[in-house]
Write a structure and sequence with these properties.
This protein is α/β, with parallel strands linked by helices. The protein has a single domain, classed as Rossmann fold (3-Layer(aba) Sandwich). The protein is built from nine helices and eight strands. It has an eight-stranded mixed β-sheet with strand order 1-2-4-3-5-6-7-8, with helices on both faces. Strand 3, helix 1 and strand 4 form a beta-alpha-beta unit. Helix 2 crosses helix 3 and helix 4 runs antiparallel to helix 5. It holds the Pfam family Abhydrolase_1. One of its GO terms (molecular function) is hydrolase activity. InterPro entries: AB_hydrolase_1, AB_hydrolase_fold, AB_hydrolase_sf, Epox_hydrolase-like. Keywords: Hydrolase.
Length: 292
């Protein structure tokens, strides 16, 4: 897939929105565009599906692109019942009549697609993990732990703008920059998505993680994996990337300079080139194997 950024290189498409009912009339919001093999994008915990607006437009030239809001984010509801994000993903694919797909997950979205791949290995053509979380990984960086505590304190006090500032500073800016160093449109989008999540995150719903968690099962994954990291991200995220590189069977690791935890948002041109190249390689490899 060639990406040169010019209007002539793309056929701009209108995304089709929809909802899928998961339980007790609770709805998950999704958007789709394009035709071909399916690529599903899952957002970070400091975002919603708007994180992927650029990719929804770009990759719909060649793929059937799906983006959606996880429970409690964007336009998706959060009921009080226990839930598992990877089971929601299963239902979404079934609703859209998608058998297999490529999956792109950022941060929390990365942990969801890892869980999904461990439960449904036959439905995964490839994984792209963007500064991914991994279920069961224990964070140790003191600055990250202190930031989480401060954000939680502000949230519990109803100081949502303050909480959004703290989380944006942690994840969008990263440990070596301030929010003033980040593009203002990126900053405003992340803080808007965070405040909307805070408004939705009112139900006492328990998320059910994979058991045993993914962190001890990485060697079970036998699909091609691309890991994209931001050079300015936190130490724990660098440690996760190093672990994935050691333990995954088929992995390619790439670093985006001048970006922290959301490289696809801060440096979309570079990210899109990395993803397009990886998907091309996976598709070419699959075609070669089928022809043997």
């Amino acid at each position: 897939m060639s990406l040169d950024g010019s209007p002539e290189s793309k056929q701009y498409r209108t995304a089709e929105p929809g909802y899928v009912v998961v339980v007790d009339d609770t709805r998950l919001h999704y958007r789709t565009a394009g035709e071909g093999e399916t690529v599903v994008f899952l957002h970070a915990g400091v975002a919603d599906s708007r994180l992927w607006d650029r990719q929804l437009e770009t990759f719909a030239d060649q793929y059937h692109v799906v983006v959606y809001d996880l429970r409690g984010y964007g336009k998706s509801e959060l009921p009080p019942q226990p839930y598992a994000h990877y089971r929601d993903l299963e239902l979404l694919l079934d609703t859209l009549n998608v058998g297999t797909a490529h999956f792109v997950g950022a941060s929390m979205g990365g942990s969801v697609v890892l869980d999904f791949a461990l439960v449904n290995p036959d439905r995964v053509q490839s994984l792209t993990l963007v500064a991914p979380a991994v279920g069961g990984y224990e964070f140790t960086d003191e600055a990250t732990l202190a930031g989480w505590e401060a954000a939680e304190t502000a949230y519990e006090a109803g100081e949502f703008d303050r909480a959004a500032d703290i989380e944006s500073e942690m994840w969008l800016a990263g440990p070596t920059r301030t929010l003033d160093d980040v593009d203002s449109e990126c900053r405003e989008l992340v803080q808007t998505m965070l405040r909307q999540h805070y408004d939705l995150d009112t139900a006492e719903a328990a998320e059910e993680g994979l058991n045993p968690p993914a962190v001890g099962r990485l060697d079970e994954l036998a699909v091609p994996v691309l890991v994209v990291s931001g050079a300015l991200d936190s130490p724990d995220m660098a440690a996760i990337t190093a672990r994935l590189e050691r333990e995954l069977a088929y992995v390619r690791c790439e670093t985006v300079d001048d970006a922290a935890h959301l490289p696809s948002l801060e440096r979309p041109d570079e990210f899109d080139e990395l993803l397009a190249s990886f998907l091309d390689d996976v598709d070419e490899s699959s075609s070669t194997e089928e022809g043997m």
